[in-house]
Write a structure and sequence with these properties.
Number of domains: 1
Largest sheet: 5 strands, parallel
Shape: globular
Number of strands: 7
Distance between the termini: 18 Å
Helix content: 25-40%
């Protein structure tokens, strides 16, 4: 399965430079963080998975755990990285953990971004949640995944600045996550 989803050529100082577009899977706690997640997904920096509607998600969950696992696998297919958008209650959630483990086991890059300071549809921020990678170990007795995978916390509490910081750094973070995974 190829890591690159597209290549564009751009002239730069007389040379052609290949720009690789990455395709990522976004993992997040749906109910409280959907609005914040949509802000990140719509930045246009990285191609991501299509949002699922409330009605579609209800249909998927009615199929039970196997249906959810199948849906997640389908959504991750062809992606090079999983980006966990970390809100107040993201860490330790069953399906977030499953998505992290699946991405790692499928040799995809994995990274986290704290999104609690992006305002929601009610113009409210939330409190910072725990690191979801603290809940997963490498192997049976290995270190916590948080010792390997990076979770980025934008250095501002201003929603506009947080958005701009994520937008400016997201593609580099994805590349770093893929490099980290390839080295581990």
């Amino acid at each position: 399965m190829p890591l690159w989803t597209g290549i564009a050529l751009k002239p730069e100082s007389g040379n052609l430079k290949a720009l690789m577009a990455r395709n990522v899977f976004y993992s997040f706690h749906y109910k409280p963080d959907n609005w914040r997640a949509s802000q990140v997904r719509q930045m246009g920096v990285i191609e991501g998975d299509a949002p699922v509607s409330d009605n579609d998600w209800e249909k998927i969950t009615k199929g039970g755990d196997d249906a959810i696992k199948k849906w997640i696998a389908g959504q991750m297919s062809g992606k090079s990285c999983a980006v966990v958008l970390i809100g107040t209650d993201t860490a330790g959630r069953k399906w977030i953990n499953h998505e992290i483990v699946k991405a790692w086991d499928d040799n995809k890059g994995v990274l986290g971004i704290y999104i609690h300071n992006i305002k929601n549809s009610d113009q409210q921020q939330s409190t910072k949640g725990g690191n979801p990678f603290d809940h997963i170990t490498l192997g049976t007795n290995g270190p916590k995944l948080s010792s390997v995978v990076k979770a980025y916390d934008p250095p501002s509490s201003d929603s506009t600045q947080v958005y701009a910081y994520i937008k400016a750094n997201l593609s580099g973070w994805v590349e770093a996550a893929i490099s980290i995974r390839n080295a581990n």
